[in-house]
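2024-03-11 09:14:02 DEBUG pipeline.ingest accepted 1 chain
2024-03-11 09:14:02 DEBUG pipeline.ingest length=192
2024-03-11 09:14:03 DEBUG pipeline.predict start
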Amino acid sequence: MCLDIDTDRIDYANLLRISVRCGDVVLTKIIHSSILKLEEEDVYLKNALIAAYMKLGYLSLAERVFDSLWSPDVVSYTAIISAFAKSNRQREAFELFLEMRELGIEPNEFTYVAILTACIRSLNLEFGCQVHGLVVRSGYSSYTYVVNALMGLYSKCGLLEFVVLLFNDMPKKDIVSWNTVIACMVEESMYD
């Protein structure tokens, strides 16, 4: 029995992981040029390139790869939204989140964490509340790391009651959940 596996694809993805581990942007660019020579656009490999450039600290190159995609998917959007959120380019993160939704690309749990990170960093409670509604409607309100991001938003905005409500409703709490609620309560008690 023969498996139909594209070894080039696997090799390129593994080479990108190695280039990131070595911190070698030159090797990453060489791999990038080889990927561009492939006959068809490969979203998987371009997503891997976006991630590699982001991890190496080359957001402009990651952005260029994203912009070259004919049909970016949820992974593409999530990666670049996350990069913008972490690079204090929240406005662009918000715009891309809205763009992906307009295109009918449904956010996943990682997308929600990325956009909530942008909300936290910009203290954009209004957008964050809208995202919270989407999280509930899309069924991600039981995902611990999504709820942790929501708690982080409400905590940064000084809304202890929302943090406690989310915490109490969480089916599974982790160390981040506990730390967030404790820090929020300590912060609140300092101002009472």
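2024-03-11 09:14:41 DEBUG pipeline.report The chain has eleven helices and no strands.
2024-03-11 09:14:41 DEBUG pipeline.predict end
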